[in-house]
Amino acid sequence: MTFFKNMRVRIKLILCFLIISILIVIVGIIGIKSLGVVNANSEEMYNNRLQSVYMLTDMKQNLTQAESDILQLVYVKDNFKKDDLEKDIQQNKAESDKYISSYEKLSMNDEEKQIWSTFKSQLSQYRTLRENVVESVNTANNDKVVTQYEQLIGYKTEMFSNLEKLISINNDSAKASNVENHLVYITSNRSMIILMIIGALIAIGLGLFISRDINNPLMETLDFAENLSKFDLTHEYQVTRKDEFGKTSEALIKAQKNIKELIKVIMDNSQDMSASSEELSSTSEELSSKVQEIDNAVTNITAQIEDASASSQQISASIQEIDSSINELSGKAIEGSNNANNAKEKSTKGKKDGKEIMDQVQNLYTEKRNNMLQAIEDGKVVKNIRVMAETISGIAEQTNLLALNASIEAARAGEQGKGFEVVAQEVGKLAEESQNAVASIQDTILKVQDASKKLSENGSDLLRFINEEIYGKIEQLRGIIDYYSEDSNFVSKMSEEIASMSEELTATVAQVSDAIQNVASTSQKSSENAQNIKIGVSETTKAIDQVALSAQSQAEFSQKLSEMVQKFKI
């Protein structure tokens, strides 16, 4: 039984159908042999026995007809019928000869052959006597005819007796063949019925056995599938056969084991992934907050740089006004030198004009001094920009560290965290770009501070020069104007000195103007860099928001995965 269980299903089915086929072949062989016997007996019955009876009966009828014709020739003595009767006798003789020839071609047993030989001998003698009777009738020898006819009747009785024996033998043989056919039918019918019953029982038994042999493992497989559909992996199955069903069961058991291990791994990793997702989400929120602080700081820096640029423009405008005033003062000094000789005549007018000039210079000095001091004070806002840039640099470093932490957490998340790792790398790049931009801003701020320092120093020198030199000269000029009429030559010389000082002052103001232009240009570049930082920070914010969304999606996915694997019973 174990050997049959371990046999392949294909071979089992082939063996079962082969057994049934053998039974069918046996039944067919018995039927064919029985039909062959029946067919041989039927041919024997028809070709030999029935044909023999038919020919012997016809021969008997012909002999009877010939006897009737002889009787008419002997006793009726009708000359009109004589020829017809003789002709009929010859015709019956010819037909009988044909029957004799055909009968001798048929198979006969020894008894038939002996009787047939006696019959032929008697027939020959009978025909000789019959011809003698006919001849006597033709010669009108009535006495001899009667004697010969009586002898003919004696031969006829013995001959017909043998003929009847032959007919009886053929009838008996036909009956025997029929009986044999009936026995063959009964035997074959009984054998085939028995074999059919045996075959049916064997087929039913094999069918039940095969169906049970196939149904049992199929039901076990169905039970396994139903348990699997219910997420139940706690059942243990044993394999006791090595056919296709056994191999299938082994494969399913192995698959169940692999699924158990997979579910355990998924359970463990889903918890880790959920924790990593939550940590990544928290990191993303913190990173988003830091980036928002960077964005606010950059906005403030941009506003301060714009204010510094506006102050630089105001300083530049003030310096241009100072330059214009100095040029005007220089022109007037030169004009005073050229007209020194005429100044004596116009001393009164010159005194008045000199006073007006002194008042204008003093007012201009006071106004420009206040503007320059305010511009220098406004230039100190660069220090605040530098502090803000250092703050942005620190925030960018923290952003870079947070991006690095996010990348590490994404790596711990495995395949699920590859997208977050890419985003974290982009955040790191943006933080690095922010640091580079901040470094550029700091460099620019240093240049602006240097330029502002130079501007402050030049402005201080200019104010000190105006306060110490110009204002003193103006005071001297005021005294000179008092003595204008007395010392016009001194006025001419002083005018030349004023012109020379004006040229020096113009050169100094030009340097200050160039420095202010550099400050304005640097402020413009700083503003552009700050705008770029702001754009980068905005993109970083979007990327971090995307990371947060991805982390949230991953957390939801981890939760669903955890809920799904919790359905399994392992």
UniProtKB/TrEMBL annotation:
User: Where is the segment annotated Disordered?
Assistant: 333-353
Presence of the UniProt keyword Calcium in the record: no
Where, by residue number, does the polypeptide cross the bilayer?
Answer: 12-32, 192-210
Which GO cellular component terms, listed alphabetically, does the Swiss-Prot or TrEMBL entry include? Answer: membrane
| Span of domain HAMP | 212-264
Q: Which SUPFAM superfamilies match?
A: Methyl-accepting chemotaxis protein (MCP) signaling domain
Q: What is a single Pfam family found in this protein's UniProt entry? A: 4HB_MCP_1
User: At the top level of its lineage, which domain of life is listed?
Assistant: Bacteria
**PANTHER family in the record, alphabetically?**
LYSOZYME-LIKE PROTEIN-RELATED, METHYL-ACCEPTING CHEMOTAXIS PROTEIN MCPB
Q: What is this protein called?
A: Methyl-accepting chemotaxis protein 4
Species for this entry: Clostridium coskatii
Gene transcribed to yield this protein: mcp4_4
